Amino acid sequence: MNPMLGVCYYPEHWPEDWWETDARRMAELGIKMVRIGEFAWSRLEPTPGNLQLDWMIRAMDVLGRHGLKVIVGTPTATPPRWMIDKHPDMLAVDRDGRRKGFGSRRHYDFSHLGYREEAARITRILAEALSGHPALAGWQTDNEYGCHGTTYSYSAAARDGFRAWLRQRYGTIEALNQAWGTVFWSMEYNGFEQIELPNLLVCEAAPAHELDFRRYSSDQVAAFNRAQYDILKARRPDLPVIHNFMSRYAEFDHFDVGETLDIASWDSYPIGHLATSNEPDEIKRHYMRQGDPDNAAFHHDLYRAVGHGRWWVMEQQPGPVNWGQSNPDPLPGMTRLWAWEAFAHGAEVVSYFRWRQAPFAQEQMHAGLLRPDSEPAPAYHEAGQVARELAETGIAGVAGQGRIAIVYDYQSEWAWEIQPQAAGFRHGDHVRALYSAFRKHGLDVDVLPPSTSSLAGYDIVAIPALLAWTDALREAVASFDGHLLVGPRSGSKTQNFAIPARLGPDLPQNLLDARVMRVDSLPDGVEIAVKGGGAARLWREKTEGGAEVVMEDVEGVPVLLSQGKLFYLTASGDRALIQRVADYLIAEADTPILTLPAGVRCRTRGGFRIYVNYSSGPQTIVPAEDEKGYVLGGTELPAAGVSVAKLATAG
Amino acid sequence: MNPMLGVCYYPEHWPEDWWETDARRMAELGIKMVRIGEFAWSRLEPTPGNLQLDWMIRAMDVLGRHGLKVIVGTPTATPPRWMIDKHPDMLAVDRDGRRKGFGSRRHYDFSHLGYREEAARITRILAEALSGHPALAGWQTDNEYGCHGTTYSYSAAARDGFRAWLRQRYGTIEALNQAWGTVFWSMEYNGFEQIELPNLLVCEAAPAHELDFRRYSSDQVAAFNRAQYDILKARRPDLPVIHNFMSRYAEFDHFDVGETLDIASWDSYPIGHLATSNEPDEIKRHYMRQGDPDNAAFHHDLYRAVGHGRWWVMEQQPGPVNWGQSNPDPLPGMTRLWAWEAFAHGAEVVSYFRWRQAPFAQEQMHAGLLRPDSEPAPAYHEAGQVARELAETGIAGVAGQGRIAIVYDYQSEWAWEIQPQAAGFRHGDHVRALYSAFRKHGLDVDVLPPSTSSLAGYDIVAIPALLAWTDALREAVASFDGHLLVGPRSGSKTQNFAIPARLGPDLPQNLLDARVMRVDSLPDGVEIAVKGGGAARLWREKTEGGAEVVMEDVEGVPVLLSQGKLFYLTASGDRALIQRVADYLIAEADTPILTLPAGVRCRTRGGFRIYVNYSSGPQTIVPAEDEKGYVLGGTELPAAGVSVAKLATAG
Amino acid sequence: MNPMLGVCYYPEHWPEDWWETDARRMAELGIKMVRIGEFAWSRLEPTPGNLQLDWMIRAMDVLGRHGLKVIVGTPTATPPRWMIDKHPDMLAVDRDGRRKGFGSRRHYDFSHLGYREEAARITRILAEALSGHPALAGWQTDNEYGCHGTTYSYSAAARDGFRAWLRQRYGTIEALNQAWGTVFWSMEYNGFEQIELPNLLVCEAAPAHELDFRRYSSDQVAAFNRAQYDILKARRPDLPVIHNFMSRYAEFDHFDVGETLDIASWDSYPIGHLATSNEPDEIKRHYMRQGDPDNAAFHHDLYRAVGHGRWWVMEQQPGPVNWGQSNPDPLPGMTRLWAWEAFAHGAEVVSYFRWRQAPFAQEQMHAGLLRPDSEPAPAYHEAGQVARELAETGIAGVAGQGRIAIVYDYQSEWAWEIQPQAAGFRHGDHVRALYSAFRKHGLDVDVLPPSTSSLAGYDIVAIPALLAWTDALREAVASFDGHLLVGPRSGSKTQNFAIPARLGPDLPQNLLDARVMRVDSLPDGVEIAVKGGGAARLWREKTEGGAEVVMEDVEGVPVLLSQGKLFYLTASGDRALIQRVADYLIAEADTPILTLPAGVRCRTRGGFRIYVNYSSGPQTIVPAEDEKGYVLGGTELPAAGVSVAKLATAG
Question: Which residues are catalytic (chains A, B, C) (predicted)?
Fold first, then answer.
């Protein structure tokens, strides 16, 4: 399938006599795919049982007549008001114990069995009514699971579900007491019915208690998705089921949800994502009209892994959004660049959000391809350009395996939120810092789940800040013959959130003769320089053992250890140190790299290498040895520019 | 009526045998007006129905004997403890859903019908008992409506009232669904009984939902005041009914409350108001002992508008207060300056708060004219000086119409709090910035409500950051032959908080051929320089149309557009840009200005021009051409100094 | 009793067959005292009434066999889960009205009578079962009263208790109304049953209302401790009852709790305490691996006063902790230094927390003397060194009365939290600033309670920022013939939190002819320079009267007044001003001082002077005239070094 453009459309927002024109203009622009329906429940079922699906079929008819394919979203993220009267306790309860009300969206509790049945019911109804429609190209389940902090609910439903889940996991209360270490503060339970949720305590809960609640909550999201997946696939096994995930969002395990998806997708809003990130202010200012040069790419590669290779951008930022503290206009060209970058990383579809800016309700300040007065917004023209360029360049193929991989683990995100030990210590920050360091050299980087059982084919694999080894990953590490970077803090716990008997990093001594004796955690702003450049910050381990010291800090504390091709990093590093470590491994592994100007990134897909320029000025690239000219652009990239080189090795 | 001094007095706080001495000293000092009673309910009715008004009559007798006039406050801001047993649900509920308890003040819910009846009852009792007292000069309703965030309550009473109000406003639920755009996220209602208050949602409510709740809440304040007004006026139509408003407080529409007042008043605490404002730290430091040089004046002019020309300062800061994070001593002379400045802007009465510092309870660190040991505090002597100077100078007349006017709109304050789009974007900031820019040139500035239907007589009128045009204002603009400054963001919405069909600023094209295509909102601290000086910040619009470009920024984006005498400002400006724009319009309108040293301000009243020096050092003024000498002070103003010039044109 | 080392041990956390080895290693290391049991309730009584004390007796047997003495903690800080089913309302309610749940520790309400009986019951059971054990050396009541903000509960139990306490205190509701000044805002009560707790009000409660609630809550802690004390002493009057207090924690009156203790102790975590303090960032960075050089010492002297001379460190930081935002590793040697410093200030026992780092539950990142794998952590070796040095030097004797004393008053801590008037004004900051200024000159400083009735024997006594005079203290001041420093803000209120009739500092005029007319409170960061050096900040009083002016600021406002040997400080000072004032009094009192390098401190105990070096580099001390050589170390102190000099005057 050649990559294509899509758009998100809400026929229920507009007079029916506008649909035809809208569809025609979409087709003329080069749009191929249209997502509809994911917030339309109150129009599909205005009162209980009163189903009104005709209008949606008519909308699909119109779109189909113009050659457009349709993704239908199940509307379960926005149950109608009357549903609350049927199930008053389906509303989730926040960590402060307050039940959240109706009037916005995502007002449901994943643990509420009554609502889960309602969600299955409307999914069945849509599957039955629309599965045969010729324009139908697939389904989206719900919308942005977990958005607005909705993964967790501290309700009676969640408590009851959690107790049952624990009983399933541990079998006996003695096993749970052992696993959680409840003897510590007389927290021992006599039975599962005594267990409460870990909110509103006097001080912190046992970390294993918190972690299990996060695992439980994550499992409910996966179960919610699985229910819809099973229904939708039963009708049309051939049509893909998709969900649209988010940026830097880790409240549930996306790999688990990905088990019942055919395609992963995500909603890419580079400017808003940078503004709401924890990046330093100088980066936020510098890229305020572009977004972080590595953040979208990282998520492209992450969701490529979640989707087992198949992934889309379901919502692509088309201009200023409405949900940042401030919402700057993108640099001209960025809505083109972002689409090209997604295609470079293997996206099958990039779908702009939304067709026409809605003049009413919560998102009225969120741009669309059209203005509220139906005139083209700037992104309209840029989308059209991308459509033409896709056709002209004939870009195709998949984003193949890179030479570099990094393991990303949702459980580790939860673990270090629960127990940072140094405020600001995050799993994801370690993963993204390495991702960026490798990518700056033009390397294709893959993201791997912690269930990975083989690392074959990679020059270098990094496993930073991992809570605990899975059996699979331990085996993968043992059998890997490439260069492996582990640490800091990797393997510092068991799966029950306890310190391993032989201390971290909990690898066999024949692999790595090092163990972490002690942690020196540092306030934000304190840095310990490393000899040769860079510095440790936040986290610093003191180790013992016979591994070789590759780098050490000015106090003589080892920073990078090695034993054969296995490297252990003992500290959280600043950008310079992380770059040095990445560079060292690249040199050791003899991995070929590119020289890229500041702000320029690239990725290979099929027989092409796509370059994008995130900087706000022009940059010049040097053609790589494996390239044979450009099918788009050239060596000079203007701000927000894109160049596509053809690879010599390609057909 | 010549301007006069007053004081706030609490006879119930002191032994009755002190009253005589207090009254004598007040009269000797030059005080003419005394406000009493507004917190005395527990002494007027110690137990339900047990009325004890004699002491208040005796206090009025004593004051009257010394020639003092009395304003009696209805005590409805502080219902006694026993009232809570009668009406447990009269206590308001905050946005987090917590009912607020007894033990401070303003512990009532404007929507609670039972308490509204109690408030009417005690008002009737006071009206009956005191209306005939010869010392009575008027009434104050309640005290500082809305103080401590009490305009809004999220109670069942408020919810029920809101539903009834919506039914009244929209007639049908379909009309409400249309107005709020509830189709957006399946938020459609089947009936008014399904509507909840917009708090404790998963994410934000529809902006029209929030705005209507603010309108509803504002209406309850107005209704509360109207009930007392009607009762008080029924007895003594000749006596004025007054309310004391606050600084930078916009939770309800003061113009609406002003409809049932004879005189508006406000409580002026310049130092505390600056300390708790959003002014930059350097301003807070620089004027820490004086207050912002334009803030009291702006409120003088605002409440002059609210009171249809009649207004007082009901509480004037007399020294350090107790409610700031810190509470600095005023610069010597400031309690004189503030009074003179109020008189300059047309105050009929300036009433110091309070006579004697209370040694007990919440405000024990709040200064009075007397210390707790009854010795004079510094402000005692300054108040005496003002009294003498009022007599000596014979200042009189009214604060006439200025050449400049600015529209201030409470609804626009609410709207941009609900939807700032750029954090920090506020209606009031735009109004005050322009106010200050014009006033620095010695110009008299009027504040106008959005119900204004004629702008006749003004050289320049500014309408910044207005949510939506009223019919009246649209007509006023169309018929205005002076210079008009509109924008940024003015007319960017309909009254239902939607984007107008033809986009903002929503004026007829023959008036202004410009429409806002897109908004570029900027993080705090990012500035886009404007050619010629100044910079855009926070908010920046990109427009299309044929209006002439007067100013543009360094990126070539138009900043000030014009079409004839109508100017449209596309951006929020820093101080320099706002000053440039004001200066440009002054030049275009050929409005004569004064040259004032830094920190010096002035206002004309009757045949006088009063100069005040907010700076911490001496300043020299140049006599204006229309002046013929000074009746107080001269060209040299010491720190905190006051000079009063006589105008040549005056009688 | 010669000073000795102890350790905290949790036999319930480890296999019983490890106990023997643990005990042997403790004894070999030089440990003499072991605290056990304070969190073990769920093992002592796994289900209601099912008592299992045998294991604890066996653990005591093992420890005793190795010559170790045992302190048994009552386990009342961690009631087991089944207790909540018996007493669901024993869980405390926070200021926001939320009941706090089970799952961590300290989940009880001091006002809950049912739980108080349960606590007495388990105390009786332990007293009966263990009192005769030969290894038993004493008891610890509960653990860290008030930790995690648990002194205050806003429950029905607390409300009922508060009402009864008020009835006891005031007798009539009229007396309460008078004391609280409830007339101020019609807050008058008709009966005690109308009084509510001072949380969730519209604005602040009357300060006397808040202060009385704090007094009430403090009394409940004292009553809770008294109940256990009485039970434990009834069985074994000879064994000491101890409680372990905390750092910079003032929610209840520790002197009151100290009335039913034989020995005071505290838990000293210098690094965590500095990190969570309000010290400036530069101090936090500078001493990040040592802790504040005066904070541990101040608490040593404070708890020496609370324990009427007898005190321990019950928990001594052994390495990184887990509860700071970050948790740096101590400088090598600090766990030795801290112990030596405690002994210098008279500690009988310094007990490291804990024996072995627990690999599970909440504190798994908190170091112990052993690592989780039972290997020695660095502190293990440092503790052994201390044990040897104690034996070798034969240090003994008590920490005698110093020449300097400072009054510390918990009620004043509460008062200025309730009414800071200048944000950041704290009683404790004034006390600690003076403590540090005197101690930098090598002076021994005593901390005195406000109940002190004689100041005899001191050269200099300071009473800063005192709410109100007690009769005892007023008498002590009147009869003192040394140099006395009072102010700022001392005596500025009555015991009912009202301004005294003759204003502060409320001392007889023959002692001090000065009264505070007015307060100028300053924003953080604003300083008013004092002539000669230093500056006033936060708080600045303007006084009248005939006292002599010793120092004045650049505006001519008196800063230090004197009348004979009584000095009154009118301002909060920066470090430089406080040092100047201390130096001035030292010179006036002719008190001999030492010259110490930066970061070096000392204290005399018995015939020894112990020097400690908190700086991160070596320092050289000059032997004092009263010393005759060193029994440990010498004039050169490395970083974290300790030297012990023998005094010439000693036996």
Answer: 144, 315
